[in-house]
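Supplementary Methods. Inverse-folding protocol.

Structures were first reduced to a discrete structure-token string of length 469. This string, shown here, constituted the complete conditioning input.
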């Protein structure tokens, strides 16, 4: 095991681009969109537009900061620079915890799919096997992670593109055996807002949470061969990714499927393929959803390990997480994240209604907190860059600072709105509690002993940069 403290830059442009694309397309889109349409009718399209806009704005801010300073700690590093060490500590550990829980959830879902196909294989065996496979992929090299994720994301993209093509042809009456619905499903059955505006606004809360994942590209760019180019490319593609994959596919769904058809909307994408006469549509979409779960599992292990590495680099985690192998992979960070994730997954089988729900709810709202910190960090770092080096701003947030302030306000409303939604109320309180505990732990355990070592690390980094220059 090597003792060096540098990750290797072995991710190619195509890897980072596809990681950013795959980060948006998850099981939540293939399955969750049906529930959104059932509750809000065609107005769910507006929910996706608003939710997508939030993610686009946050990614634009993150891209601006990432171009100036590509780092495996990404937004935790920026929060530390802009707000203070406590903010970087809080965001780093919360984000790590969030992804560990996501890996645990995805592992149990993957195991359930395998059990469904092969009933003789227990759910826990399938979960463990696939988690270990993703762990090995991550440990072998960052390039193997990137390659594996590239092809998983590619399959998801192919599925969405095929759906958009088939759905568009159906909408315009291009399939003789399928009657074109025209706009009857949008203006009929109670109109565009059949249940009023409240469900549309409530859906924004759920959708914003389901759209997370794009920010992984900013972390991955730190290990790419050309960080600045890859971040710019990934961030610039966010707008069309959201527009085409999310808003485009949901527009097709609300046009073809009536919002009152609850059975069809349980598996909306499979229903459209089935209407088009595609054989085994349901099973094909089950495979695509399974691949989506694997993709999130793979990215979750990568992201959590890099955040753990970054925390250790800043003196906020054990130094063992800095140890990398010959291919530049922080092995102990990967293994630790895997172990914690699988311990959390075990609670699904031991105490599904108490411990597992507690853990899942504790991490559920973390992303909104991370996004709010990204926006606050952006305001401070943007003003600092404008004073010290305005020419370095290759990507700029639109209508700064007004859109950034508006985004902070919208994200705060979305986070607080959880307290007024019955099924999200527990998530709001537990996430808030965990956040307070993490902040408190910094001031109790890390503040005094962390500052000197961190300052020495900053001095070393400055000297290294001066040598390069």
């Amino acid at each position: 095991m090597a003792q060096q403290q540098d990750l290797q830059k072995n991710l190619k442009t195509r890897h980072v681009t596809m990681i950013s694309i795959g980060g948006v397309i998850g099981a939540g889109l293939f399955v969750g969109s049906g529930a959104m349409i059932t509750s809000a009718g065609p107005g769910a399209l507006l929910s996706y537009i608003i939710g997508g806009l939030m993610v686009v704005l946050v990614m634009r801010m993150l891209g601006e900061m990432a171009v100036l300073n590509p780092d495996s700690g990404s937004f935790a590093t920026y929060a530390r620079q802009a707000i203070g060490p406590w903010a970087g500590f809080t965001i780093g550990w919360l984000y790590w915890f969030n992804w560990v829980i996501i890996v645990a959830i995805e592992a149990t879902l993957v195991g359930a799919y395998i059990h469904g196909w092969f009933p003789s294989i227990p759910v826990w065996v399938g979960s463990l096997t696939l988690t270990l496979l993703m762990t090995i992929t991550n440990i072998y090299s960052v390039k193997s992670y990137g390659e594996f994720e590239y092809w998983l994301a590619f399959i998801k993209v192919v599925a969405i593109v095929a759906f958009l093509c088939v759905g568009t042809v159906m909408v315009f009456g291009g399939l003789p055996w399928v009657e074109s619905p025209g706009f009857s499903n949008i203006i009929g059955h109670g109109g565009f807002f059949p249940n009023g505006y409240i469900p549309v606004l409530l859906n924004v809360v759920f959708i914003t949470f389901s759209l997370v994942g794009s920010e992984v590209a900013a972390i991955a760019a730190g290990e790419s061969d050309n960080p600045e180019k890859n971040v710019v490319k990934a961030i610039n593609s966010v707008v069309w990714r959201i527009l085409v994959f999310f808003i485009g596919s949901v527009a097709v769904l609300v046009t073809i499927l009536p919002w009152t058809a609850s059975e069809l909307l349980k598996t909306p994408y499979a229903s459209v393929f089935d209407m088009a006469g595609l054989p085994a549509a349901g099973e094909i979409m089950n495979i695509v959803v399974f691949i989506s779960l694997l993709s999130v599992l793979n990215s979750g292990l990568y992201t959590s390990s890099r955040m753990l590495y970054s925390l250790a680099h800043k003196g906020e985690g054990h130094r063992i997480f800095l140890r990398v192998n010959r291919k530049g992979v922080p092995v102990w960070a990967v293994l630790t994240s895997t172990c914690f994730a699988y311990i959390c997954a075990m609670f699904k089988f031991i105490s599904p209604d108490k411990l597992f729900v507690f853990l899942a709810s504790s991490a559920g709202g973390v992303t909104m907190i991370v996004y709010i910190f990204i926006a606050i960090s952006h305001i401070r770092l943007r003003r600092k860059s404008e004073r010290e080096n305005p020419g370095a701003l290759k990507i700029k947030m639109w209508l700064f600072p007004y859109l950034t302030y508006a985004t902070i306000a919208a994200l705060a409303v979305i986070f607080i709105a959880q307290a007024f939604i019955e099924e999200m109320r527990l998530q709001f309180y537990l996430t808030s509690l965990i956040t307070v505990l993490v902040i408190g732990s910094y001031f109790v355990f890390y503040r005094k002993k962390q500052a000197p070592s961190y300052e020495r690390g900053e001095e070393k980094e400055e000297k290294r940069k001066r040598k390069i220059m």
